């Protein structure tokens, strides 16, 4: 089972940025002031649940995330580009270093995207498209 110390700092940052970025990407795809609070809450709950109960030690460690990896002024385009890049890097990293962790990571990331999407009804088309981008990047 892979652990944080099995990865370089840059690899770990990509793994974490992919996790948080997946939720942000879905949230930004259909922006509404009040929905943002619900979606942020859903992201936080999903991460907390994974930190407590995931069978994957790697997912539990990734769920101990501090910060987003994005700047306060990051544009939606930058969030999308950086998230998809991070997810592609994370996929390659896990394929080479911890192939048995790719499935749990993929489920974690897609679960976050889905939780954020379901948090505040509406935006189904835009949010569905964002989830598909995440799914495509992570394989």
Brief rundown of the structure:
The protein is built from six helices and no strands.
Features:
139 residues, 6 helices, globular
The number of E-state strands comes to: 0
- Residues in helices, as a percent range: over 70%
State the helix count.
6
Rg of Cα set: 14 Å
Structural description of this entry:
The chain is mainly α and 139 residues long. The chain has a domain of 96 residues. It is 74% helix and 0% strand. Helix 1 packs antiparallel against helix 2, helix 1 crosses helix 4 and helix 5 runs antiparallel to helix 6. The chain is globular.
Secondary structure: elements and pairs:
Elements: H1 9-29, H2 33-53, H3 57-62, H4 76-97, H5 102-119, H6 124-138
Helix pairs in contact: 1-2, 1-4, 1-5, 1-6, 2-5, 4-6, 5-6
